[in-house]
Write a structure and sequence with these properties.
Radius of gyration: 20 Å
Shape: globular
Distance between the termini: 26 Å
Largest sheet: none
Length: about 425
Amino acid sequence: MSQKRNLAFHTLRHRDFRFLWVADTIAMLGTQMQRVAIIYQVYVLTESPLQLGMLALFRFLPILLFGIVGGVVADQQDRRKVLIYAHIGLFLTSGSLAVATYAGSATLWLIYLITFVSSTFSALAGPARQALIPSLVNRSEIAGAATVANLGMQTAGVIGPALAGVMIGAMGVGIAYVWNAASFLAVIVAAIMIRTRCEPIRLATTGFAAAKEGFAFLWATPILLAVMVLDFVATFFGANTTLMPIFAEEILNIGATGLGLLLSAIAVGAVIGGLVMSVMPVPQRPGRAILISIAAYGACIVGFGLSRNLELSLLLLAGSGAADSISMAMRHAIRNLVTPDEYRGRIAAAHSTFSMGGPQLGEVRAGAVATLIGTPGSVAIGGILTIIACAIAARLVPTLGRYNSASWHDQPSPDTRRSEQASDRT
C-alpha cells in the first residue's frame, strides 16, 4: 500500500518529466497572475459583468476553432518542438499586452484581441503538453504523473492570484503581464533540454480525416465521452471566476488585494485536494469519486453565492477548489490510461475543448445572468444546476459510477514499451 501512496511523487525521479513539471508550474504561476490582472483591468475599464463574461468567450473561441488542429499537430509532429513554438507565441502576446498597458493604449477590444491570440497559442500548446507527459514516465505511473501535474498547477494557483493582488495594488496590472511573459521562457528552456526522443507518429490519415478519426475513437469509448461531457456541463453552470471582482469590490468590500485572496482560496483548496490524491491509493470507483466531487463542488458554489461573510466565503471557495482538483485528477488519469499514444494529442484537444469550453462559456452565462438577477443569484443558481447535472449524469450513464480502477492498468496500449524505454533513458 505504501508504494501506491508514494507513486505520484515517484514520477519526479524522471529527469525530463521533472524539468517539464517545474517549468509548467512556473508558467502557470505567471498565467494565474495574468488572469487576475486581465479581469481586474476589464472591470476597471467597464464595471460591467457582461463585459467580464465576454472575456471568457474570447478565451474559448480559439479552443473551439483551433483545438482539434492542435491535437492533430501534436499527433503528427514532434511534441517537444510544438511546445517550444507555441510558448514563443505566448511570450510575445503577454509581452505585447505589457507594452500596451504601460503605454496607456490597452483598450477593451485590444485586450480581447490579445486574449484571443494568446488562447490560440494555448490551443496548440495544451494537446502537445498533455500528450507528451505519458511518454516521460512509465505506464504504471501515468495516474501519478497526472496527479503531480495537477498539484503543480494548483500550487501555482495559490501563489499566483495572491501575488497578483499584492503586485497590482502596488505597481499596477502591467507587472503581471511582464512576469507572465518571462515565465514562458522556462517552458521553452525545459522543452529544449528534454532528452526523451519524441518522434512524430506516422498516422494513417492526415488533416480533417485525422481529426475525424480522433472523434470516432472518442465516440467509441463511452467512459471518455461521459467524463468529458460531465466536465463541460458542471463547469458551465459552476463557473464564476470573472464575477470575483464584483464580489471583492461590491459584496465583500475587500478591494484588489481581497480579489487575489478569493482566487487564492480556490487554489488553496485545490492544492489540499491534490495532496490528498497524491498520498491516497487510487479510488476503486474513480467514476463515482468524480460524481461525488462534482456534487460537492456545486454545493460549495451555492454556499459562496449566498455568503456575505469573508471567512465563510473563503472556506467555501477552498472547498470548491478541493472538490474540483480531485475530480480533475481522476479525469486526467482515466483519459491518459485509456487513450493509445497515437490518439493522445487529438483526445487531449477534445478534452481541452470540453474542459475549457465549460468554464469559459459558463463565465459568459454567469455574466449575462448576473446582469439580469444580480451576481449572488447568478452564482447560487449555477451551483444548484451543477448538482442537478451531476445527478442526471449518474442516472443516464450508470457505467461511470461502476467504472472499476482495477481495469486501469489492464488497458492495452501500443506505447507501453516506448514509455518504459523513454524512462530508462532519463
